Amino acid sequence: MDPSHIRNFCIIAHIDHGKSTLADRLLELTHTVAKRDMKAQMLDKMDLEREKGITIKLAPVRMLYEKYELNLIDTPGHVDFSYEVSRSLQACEGAILVVDASQGIQAQTLANVYLALAANLAVIPVLNKIDLPAADVDRVSAEVMSLLGCAKEDILLISAKTGQGVGAVLARVIAKIPPPKNGSSSMTRALVFDSYYDDYRGVILYVRVFDGSITKNAGFKMMATSSEGIALEVGALKPAMVETQELKSGEIGYIVTNLKTTRQAKVGDTVTLAKEPATTPLPGYKEVLPFVYAGFFPESNDKYQELKDAIEKLSLSDSALQFVPENSPVLGFGVRIGFLGLLHMDIVRERLEREYNLELVVTNPSTDYQVTLNNDEELDIKSASELPDVSTIKEIREPWVNGEIIVPNEYVGGILQLIATKRGRQKNLSYVDKRALIAFEAPLANLLTDFYDQLKSITSGYGSFNYELSDYRTEDLIRLDFYIAGEIVSALSIMVHRSESVSLGRSIVEKLKEVIPRQNFQVALQAAIGGKFIAREDLSAYRKDVTTGLYGGDVSRKKKVLAKQAKGKKRMKRFGKVDIPAEAFTVMLKRN
Question: With respect to CATH, is domain 189-273 assigned 2.40.30.10?
Fold first, then answer.
């Protein structure tokens, strides 16, 4: 295909603004997929994506329309997968920005627009869902014009559900998005914007070729990981794999490799030929670092090996997943996994439970902390139980994030209050029409548990939230431990700011009282900082009536039996073990 007839573009939007539905209509209009094979969310391969109505993995597809080759990438909309979006934008020359005509601009819309403008892409604004009764075309058009600085006639009005106006989108893509530029280098270079592991074919790379070409059976090299392999097959996705003899400069396609793991072919890496390797990689590669960690334990220790095997298989197709074995005195053997965010954690948990039939206990999510010891040694700890002795610590630094919240004007007061309760600081407040954009900074640990739920609750579902990691700051942080029946349970330990420790200790102890079942002896539930207890609740014992078989006779008989029972309870209290249910380890997820 002549490069001047190629258009590479992606669709960006906030969650649930209609990206995947628009992609479906484009596939129909270009006859890429036969009408009988068509189904909703055609490019979403996972059952989870269809159920939740969100895109989790990006999906490329090649469409032929008139005399043009259109390469589309459908991207995820959630903040947890923004790294995938940024790689997709690097592979394109243009982006279709979809905005819901009833909801208007949301936090992730802004984040994706900034990424697109930073990548110098041609942005085509599209207002979707204009057929809805709640659609407010004039208001939302004004928001888009203010954001992009475009004219009203530049904004396309469509309904992806009914297909109204979708033809104009294709015409605008061909007219406005520039064709790929001729390669600046004679050496072959291609950007990996996604990779996954296929059980039968090995690692498959989704690439955009910038310079040169990659032919079938060519030897290649990954520039960041230095891994070498063979391109067993190359081709395009339509959306099924269609083999071709080579991928030329400007084209988007796939490479089936003989690599054994996606860790050898990371997203953002540059592919070059092994015979004539390029000297400079394509810009934009960076290591994806997780910043939410949680312990995953099987309900029965016999299933530990199954859990480990399942996570290893899952990590083959998810290069962002990082894990290390973990051992807890209460929960036994498990795995500590790093995630890009809470949605990423939920997706992984559901996939493990569904695809591998595992019953899991998941501990409270935490972030990582940087610790400097008195001897200036630096430590990076992923859970509170790893914290060394307090007397050896010079300072502890925790991650802070820069966040943006977009809400209707009437909810601003409630949101500012919410940010203050999370130790956050408001940085900026601006108004666009009937919406407010609140910029703030806050410690990541305080946003991990129920911040998103509280935001949705305060704003009646209208608030949207986006964040990115800022830096690590020294704070007065301490470890809060929990004791059950006099024994410390390290899996429940958390890192907190000293100012929040007492109230948090009390609320968690009260929560534990609700979820831990009563025993035959009294159980003390305690929160402690170091050796000092700051909160306590008692689970009263079951009382068995041991005097039921005694009729008449001297009262001393009754006293004797009750004294024997009291003695037994004292002994039981010394040696009895408390069975801690799985819910006790997730009390932090829903504090209120």
Answer: yes
